[in-house]
Amino acid sequence: MQTQTLTRKIETENLSVFYGSFKAISDVSVEIYENNVTALIGPSGCGKSTFLRSLNRLNDLVPKTAVAGKVLLDDTDIYAPSQDVVDIRRRVGIVFQRPNPFPMSIFDNVAYGPRLYGIKKKSVLAEIVEESLRGAALWDEVKDKLDKSGLALSGGQQQRLCIARTIAIEPEVILMDEPASALDPIATLRIEELIRKLRERFTIVIVTHNMQQAARVSDYTAFFNMGDDRAGYLVEFDETDRIFTNPQQKLTEEYITGRFG
Amino acid sequence: MTPTRAEFENELNAIRSNVTRMALLVNTAIKKAMQALETRDENLARQIIADDRHINDLRFQIEADALATIARQQPVAGDLRLIIAVMTIVPELERMADHAAGIAKIAIEMGKEPPLKPLIDLPRMAAIAQEMLTDSMRAFNAVDTAAAKHIIARDDEVDALYEQVFRELVSFMIEDPHTVTRAMYLLFIGHNLERIADRVTNICERVVFLAEGKIEETPGNDSAISLAD
Ligand SMILES: Nc1ncnc2c1ncn2[C@@H]1O[C@H](COP(=O)(O)OP(=O)(O)OP(=O)(O)O)[C@@H](O)[C@H]1O
Ligand SMILES: [Mg+2]
Predict the structure, then answer these.
(1) Nearest ligand, CA A25
(2) Disulfide check for A132: which of A168, B7, B53, B219 has CB 3.0–4.6 Å away?
(3) Please, what are the domains in chain B?
(4) Which residues in B lie closer than 8 A to residue A256 (C-beta atoms)?
């Protein structure tokens, strides 16, 4: 239920992504609103991860990928030649499905990004680490063992550590690719709570296979499907409340009610 | 696209058919209540009052089934709207059966006194209300908005008859105060029938909601002469 006015944070215009000659997503035009959570749902292989990774140019790292169309971040095309990829990835962070802390201390995990961006002063770093861990709802659990390895944490804690690591560099947008699918139900709910809180400071885009999760955490939902040519396309985009009570497309209804193929 | 939730489909179908069955029982109750009234059949009237319990039981069973389906299947979209529609339709049906039992009670009282006048408009009201109820279940099962809206419009016919009954009975009472008790009985019956038709329109509004996801009062769907419910 949306009451405040919406600011467009990201907009894709006819975005297509190719892996070699294979078109993975086709002509996706969608708007991502600031300080909202947008969920991407759809069957396996329809290109959700591909779409998500195109929002911070992570696909650039995959050889032979090509992009057509536009991805506008605050109205500037991130694929324009003048754009600095490092700066884009600072502004648009990403959290993956499997928690992937670096093999270093909890403190260093979170301080890693800020250090990379040139912050050296110990007191400043300590402040950022504390604030980021608080932001990721992990501080109380780890404040007495910041020097312990990040790998020694539970799966749910590791994922929150990765979120802390992401927010430490103060991105504007956080992309999450199935961030809770490797976690137990309690850890999952904690991540969901966290996402709702993070939304006050960041714009969030989350890929999830869990319909109830999409319904719980997101404000907007985009449903992708795979075309006959196996290229993913956007079927429907709307407020989450509407998608889950009264979707306009039959295909969306069939997918979210579990009647799909 | 093949259905992949057979068990869930079965549950929804069972709920749907129980609602239809409940509506049939209600319709029978209305029919018998009017019959008891017209034939001054006290035994039949008592039977309707006793049978009301079965309709109440069915209501609670449907509600329990709907609740269990929500808890176990997490319905969304059209499935969710069906469950929510059912949750609001079955109390309407149950109250309609209460109105039928109310008519039966008055029929018993009226049997103790000579008839005031031949019954003409009240059976007509009942016939229209029953038709509306039957049609509403058809619209519900077919998720047919146009049919539902058509039925809602028929409520005006019932309201018009009720006003006619009302005016006629008031004139009786003014002319001869000895008729007041019997005229009041007939008026209560009219009121019960008018409320039954109103409740059918509520059901039809839920059919529109089921089809379109919109909850809205249909314009002009207000009671004729308001008495206590
Ligand atoms: N690096 C790659 N090289 C070639 N093809 C790829 C590559 N990554 C993904 N694809 C293909 O692109 C299509 C979309 O994949 P993608 O991972 O984006 O789907 P997805 O919707 O995220 O699926 P899932 O729900 O299973 O994670 C698939 O057909 C996949 O095989
Ligand atoms: Mg994926």
Answers:
(1) 1
(2) A168
(3) 5-212 (1.20.58.220)
(4) 76-77
Exposure of A43 by Cβ count < 10 A (0-12 exposed, 13-18 middle, 19+ buried)?
middle
Yes or no, beta carbons of B5 and A247 under 8 Å apart: no
Shortest distance between the Cα of A215 and any Cα of chain B, in A, equals 10
DSSP per-residue codes, chain A: ---SPP-EEEEEEEEEEEETTEEEEEEEEEEEETT-EEEEE-STTSSHHHHHHHTTTGGGGSTTEEEEEEEEETTEETTSTT--HHHHHHHEEEE-SS----SSBHHHHHHHHHHHTT---HHHHHHHHHHHHHHTT-HHHHTT-TTSBGGGS-HHHHHHHHHHHHHTT--SEEEEESTTTTS-HHHHHHHHHHHHHHTTTSEEEEE-S-HHHHHHH-SEEEEEEE-TTS-EEEEEEEEHHHHHH--SSHHHHHHHTT---
The verdict on the CB of residue A62 being under 6 Å from ligand 1 is: yes
Q: Within 10 A of B59 (CB to CB), how many other CB atoms are there?
A: 21
List of domains in chain A: 8-256 (3.40.50.300)
Q: Ligand 1 within 6 A of A227 CB?
A: no
For residue B79, give the nearest of A211, A257, A260 by CB distance.
A257
pLDDT at A46: 97
Asked whether the predicted pLDDT for residue B54 surpasses 50, the reply is yes
B19/B214: higher pLDDT:
B19
With contact defined as beta carbons under 8 Å apart, do A217 and A196 qualify? yes
- Pocket of ligand 1, candidates A16, A46, A176: which has the most ligand atoms within 8 Å of its Cβ, to mutate? A46
* Cα A217 to Cα A241: distance, rounded to the nearest angstrom: 11
Q: Please give the Cα distance from A149 to A244 (Å, whole number).
A: 41
Residue A4 has pLDDT above 90, yes or no: no
